[in-house]
Amino acid sequence: MDTTAHVQALNADGKLLADAAERAGLLTAVPSCPGWQVRDLLRHQGYVHSWATRFVGEQLASPGPRVTEAEVLAMDPPSDADLLAWFRDGHAALVAALSGADPDVSCWTFLAAPSPLAFWARRQAHETAIHRTDAELAAGALTPFGTQFAADGIDELIMGFLARNAKRLPADVAQGPYRSIELTATDAEQSWHVDLTAEAGRVARVSRLGPEGQYSAPGVPAGTPGAQPDCELAGPAAGLYLLLWNRASPADAGVTVSGDPGALVAWRGGVHITW
């Protein structure tokens, strides 16, 4: 997907998020975010949109002093009465900043990307998409994701976040039994390999060759430990996307789990995404 497509997705999903939040009501619990009500979701996503807008719009070269989300929101907290309008205005400002930015804009990023603009458009598209899911789960009706967008989100999660955060896995996962997972988006014909150990810290896009299904992937030579996965997850890209972000069970996502289920348990309990 290119930057224009990511901005279009961000625009659409932000509007869907706000509409779902309005239908659900601000005090409704968000089942996929335990402890949150819809108003907490709006404040969080609105904060993230404002945070991202500043990097692109002001061309900030570093993240600056570490100020928590709670501290920022406490400085000028939106009231419940104004919350939806505040969210919609902030979302529109982010879309405008990304749409109007110079393709060569220079600013801070935290994952590898073709350009800073490509990074922020992709990251905010998927950030908003997953939280749109949260709002719609609270409201009771989920809008499906397209195959290409969902596969792109899986790729960002694995080849971006997990590749960078491999050394940040919790000790019980990183130092536990060697586990590897192959994930296949069947409708997108894309697969990925993940090792859930700090020592290996290996992720790769993979393909299978030959009748015995040997791996062909950078960093995953055939015949090495873990080249054949302990656990295989296969299903539609949209379902796999939600499963990997812990927004759906395998059954609800239409994903088949083969092999060692402990690898999926380790993923769901041990993979936590932070910038």
* Strand content bin: 5-15%
Any idea what the CATH architecture of the largest domain is? Up-down Bundle
Number of domains: 2
Number of strands: 6
Give the ordered list of helices and strands.
HHHHHHHEEEEEHHEH
In a nutshell, what does this entry contain?
This protein folds into 2 domains: 137 residues, Up-down Bundle (Four Helix Bundle (Hemerythrin (Met), subunit A)), CATH 1.20.120; 124 residues, SCP2 sterol-binding domain (Nonspecific Lipid-transfer Protein, Chain A), CATH 3.30.1050.10.
Provide an overview of this structure.
- With 275 residues, this protein is of the alpha+beta class.
- The protein contains ten helices and six strands, in the order H-H-H-H-H-H-H-E-E-E-E-E-H-H-E-H.
- It has helices at residues 3-24, 38-58, 69-75, 83-100, 116-139, 147-165, 171-174, 237-244, 250-253, 261-270; strands at residues 180-185, 190-195, 203-209, 214-216, 231-235, 256-259.
- It has a six-stranded mixed β-sheet with strand order 4-3-2-1-5-6.
- Residues 209-213 and 221-226 have low confidence and may be disordered.
Give the SSE map.
Layout: H1 3-24, H2 38-58, H3 69-75, H4 83-100, H5 116-139, H6 147-165, H7 171-174, E1 180-185, E2 190-195, E3 203-209, E4 214-216, E5 231-235, H8 237-244, H9 250-253, E6 256-259, H10 261-270
Parallel strand pairs: 1-5
Antiparallel strand pairs: 1-2, 2-3, 3-4, 5-6
Helix pairs in contact: 1-4, 1-5, 2-4, 2-5, 6-8
